[in-house]
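Field reference: sequence -> structure
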Amino acid sequence: MIIEDNYKVKNNITKELKSPDILTEKRIGFFVKQIENEFDKIIFTDKALNKEKHLTEVTSYFNDKLTRNIREHLEATNQFRFYDLFAGAGGLSSGLENANLAPQLALDKDKSSLLTYHFNRPFLSQEQVINDDIKVVSRDFEFKKVPLVVGGPPCQGFSNANKQKKVNDDRNQLYKFYLHTVKHSTPDIFLLENVPGILEFIEIITKDFKKIKYSLFPFILNTKDFGFPQNRKRVFIIGLADSNSKIFSDLMKIFNDTIEDNLGNKKFSLWDSIRDLPVLEAKSERNSTSQESKNWGYTFGNFVTHKSEYSLLVNNGVELFAPVLNHKSKFNNERDIKIYGLLKPGDKSDSAKIADINPYLNRGGIFKDKFYKLVPDDPCKTITAHMYYDCHMYIHPKSARGLTPREAARIQGFSDDYLFLGSPNEWYRQIGNAVSPLIGKILGVAINKMLNRIYEH
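Structure field:
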């Protein structure tokens, strides 16, 4: 099979390296302006950081980082391209990129998620990052052929937590627009991610994809089985184009062997993943989102060298010297802070320690997990977008506060210099909705091997 030019990145970098790239300079300027806009919103309430000096240091850091990102993209060759649908903040893309795959297009309806996605991929043009509804885009956009399409349609309609789910729930039908994109971009492989509840519909989904000549191979992965610090179970569906049916057995052996080779290589606990981040207190002042301090944390914190064993894992083996990003505590009232302090790791809402002040006690077992203090030596419970509302179910194991967005991002496996944009609550939602980049990398390694097998066939 011949590999067409648009299948892989085949950059001619000679001109780029010898002369200033005006387009690159403009693009870097656009992203640096976003950082300046974020700083404009911030009010430092103590003198631990000098705002003007810190802004200069942070913008200098990101100017270098983003320039390096673009340069590395220009220098990369023979990377299989992919489309990321329902891309969110880019968790799955991050993992695939770490496995030497290259995003060609990202699509998501949520604006703040796409801002985060694009900021961390400055090499993509505005046209390659589409902030729109897939129901509109899949009808009007011309999707060219790529080797790989990935994405996770919003999963609320498939969730076991949704007691009123219906087969015809609109959220369950979004996969059909994913299917439409697959049909027109004709990838050799697609990867669809969702919650385990999607398996109740697997027969219907399999029949739909069979109509466009794809065979499906669903499987369940849990991040904790790979030694990562989170109990996060998700379904992944590999779709293989029937045009490669003669080597299906080879392809699935490559996939299964790669997964098995990575099972349980490390055993990281929740505490392993967050213990080196700055100690913070719960924010005790209402309506103070813009206020930042040493005690409450910062959007752009002090520069530190990240060198714990777990940080080396999420930072691809690099002792990263960078500002601590998105590490801010959430507001809690006096009662909640007291509850957080009284609970011991593993305690829930039904603990006798908080019976006299628990506002949810009269609601019975339904709210047993309304408060939960995390256990430091175990994997964390599943990080979810619910943290957008409150962190009662994600109480820090050693402090009377909820997890910060950076701690949640660490648990998920995002690199320490991955900046989340939008409001702090939107950071939580972006992180909770993401695929773990650590799992994404393992899947990416497997898919890269499979694509190489297909193109040598």
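Note: The CA atoms of residues 270 and 423 lie 25 Å apart.
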